[in-house]
């Protein structure tokens, strides 16, 4: 980085906020505190409650931890720039944010794919669930879901680190890789191709796993009783909503980076560019059981064990239901 011509990038999207900086700063601060509170409550509950140390809850733990990671990579920097008069970010800080945000996005999709696979095993292979999803297998899957996106993105990121920058304007609130690349003195022809290949590497395997899991689940559910179908649906709905929520934000962010979105008003582009971090980080803790947190932590002592068990199996009770449902076939 010693031969870098430009030392700072100017984030031009902040110009439309200059008349409302104080109010927007307050909104972002409250959102960040809300994200930290919701996710840390889930993290502490799962960590401190041994009954919750099951694969599905471990994956939920990893999802919430990643959301703290992603929101911390985004919102403090956004708030700091809001307080600035020049809206400039040092190149090294910008490149650091690029790494954090891209690995957050990749890990989020990996964890959602793992959760889909867990639901497939719970519903379609209930008798073999604990054999297949052993603690050893769970640890290997968690390690793979963390290492895989980091190594894959690092290979592409190393190309960005080799660039020098002659332009300094980024039309966003934060740094993303392609916007940084556009400011380089010369853009290597292969970097766009490698970037597209990276998207396939980080999306296609997980997408195939999710599709396979839900195709198998839908086939099994057709053979079950209505009550069993209802419980299976209750198990899958939080994950499907999380997946849909994150996919909407990710598709827009990828589209905005790769294609011109000038036909949309600036305010809408800004909102949608923040969607993939902020909305999932707020909604996922609610979807994955925050409603039971107060009961589990502060309920009567005689009911606490029961409530913890309910929280543990609330999204896994389909294993028993499907097993009994199959016995009726």
UniProtKB/TrEMBL annotation:
<keyword id="KW-0675">Receptor</keyword>
<dbReference type="GO" id="GO:0005549">
    <property type="term" value="F:odorant binding"/>
</dbReference>
<feature type="transmembrane region" description="Helical">
    <location>
        <begin position="236"/>
        <end position="254"/>
    </location>
</feature>
<keyword id="KW-1003">Cell membrane</keyword>
<keyword id="KW-0472">Membrane</keyword>
<dbReference type="GO" id="GO:0004930">
    <property type="term" value="F:G protein-coupled receptor activity"/>
</dbReference>
<keyword id="KW-0716">Sensory transduction</keyword>
<dbReference type="InterPro" id="IPR052921">
    <property type="entry name" value="GPCR1_Superfamily_Member"/>
</dbReference>
<comment type="similarity">
    <text>Belongs to the G-protein coupled receptor 1 family.</text>
</comment>
<keyword id="KW-1133">Transmembrane helix</keyword>
<feature type="transmembrane region" description="Helical">
    <location>
        <begin position="274"/>
        <end position="298"/>
    </location>
</feature>
<keyword id="KW-1015">Disulfide bond</keyword>
<dbReference type="Pfam" id="PF13853">
    <property type="entry name" value="7tm_4"/>
</dbReference>
<feature type="transmembrane region" description="Helical">
    <location>
        <begin position="99"/>
        <end position="120"/>
    </location>
</feature>
<keyword id="KW-0297">G-protein coupled receptor</keyword>
<keyword id="KW-0552">Olfaction</keyword>
<dbReference type="InterPro" id="IPR000276">
    <property type="entry name" value="GPCR_Rhodpsn"/>
</dbReference>
<dbReference type="GO" id="GO:0004984">
    <property type="term" value="F:olfactory receptor activity"/>
</dbReference>
<keyword id="KW-0325">Glycoprotein</keyword>
<protein>
    <recommendedName>
        <fullName>Olfactory receptor</fullName>
    </recommendedName>
</protein>
<dbReference type="InterPro" id="IPR017452">
    <property type="entry name" value="GPCR_Rhodpsn_7TM"/>
</dbReference>
<dbReference type="GO" id="GO:0005886">
    <property type="term" value="C:plasma membrane"/>
</dbReference>
<keyword id="KW-0807">Transducer</keyword>
<feature type="transmembrane region" description="Helical">
    <location>
        <begin position="24"/>
        <end position="46"/>
    </location>
</feature>
<feature type="transmembrane region" description="Helical">
    <location>
        <begin position="58"/>
        <end position="79"/>
    </location>
</feature>
<feature type="domain" description="G-protein coupled receptors family 1 profile">
    <location>
        <begin position="38"/>
        <end position="288"/>
    </location>
</feature>
<keyword id="KW-0812">Transmembrane</keyword>
<feature type="transmembrane region" description="Helical">
    <location>
        <begin position="141"/>
        <end position="159"/>
    </location>
</feature>
<feature type="transmembrane region" description="Helical">
    <location>
        <begin position="193"/>
        <end position="215"/>
    </location>
</feature>
<dbReference type="InterPro" id="IPR000725">
    <property type="entry name" value="Olfact_rcpt"/>
</dbReference>
């Amino acid at each position: 980085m010693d031969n870098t011509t430009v030392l700072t990038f100017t984030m031009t999207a902040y110009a439309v906020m200059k008349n409302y900086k104080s109010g927007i700063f307050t909104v972002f601060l409250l959102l960040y505190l809300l994200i930290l509170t919701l996710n840390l409550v889930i993290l502490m509950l799962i960590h401190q409650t041994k009954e919750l140390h099951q694969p599905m809850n471990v994956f939920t733990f990893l999802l919430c931890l990643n959301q703290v990671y992603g929101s911390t990579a985004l919102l403090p920097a956004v708030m700091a720039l809001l307080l600035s008069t020049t809206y400039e970010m040092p190149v090294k800080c910008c490149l650091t944010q690029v790494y954090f945000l891209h690995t957050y996005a990749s890990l989020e999709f990996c964890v959602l794919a793992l959760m889909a696979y867990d639901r497939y095993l719970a519903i379609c292979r209930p008798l073999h669930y604990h054999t297949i999803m052993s603690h050893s297998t769970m640890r290997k899957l968690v390690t793979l879901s963390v290492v895989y996106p980091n190594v894959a993105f690092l290979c592409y990121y190393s190309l960005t680190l080799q660039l020098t920058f002659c332009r300094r304007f980024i039309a966003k609130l934060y740094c993303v890789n392609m916007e940084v690349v556009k400011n380089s003195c010369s853009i290597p022809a292969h970097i766009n191709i490698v970037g597209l290949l990276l998207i396939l590497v980080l999306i296609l395997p997980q997408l195939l796993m999710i599709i396979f899991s839900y195709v198998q689940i839908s086939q099994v559910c057709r053979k079950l009783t209505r009550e069993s179908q209802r419980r299976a649906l209750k198990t899958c709905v939080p994950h499907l909503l999380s997946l849909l929520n994150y996919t909407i934000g990710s598709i827009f962010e990828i589209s905005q980076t790769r294609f011109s979105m000038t036909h949309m008003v600036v305010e809408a582009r800004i909102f949608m560019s923040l969607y993939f971090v902020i909305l999932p980080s707020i909604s996922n803790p609610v979807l994955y059981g925050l409603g039971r947190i107060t009961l589990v932590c502060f309920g009567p002592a005689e009911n606490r064990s029961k409530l913890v068990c309910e929280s543990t199996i609330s999204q896994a009770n389909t294993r028993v239901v499907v097993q009994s449902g199959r016995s009726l076939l």
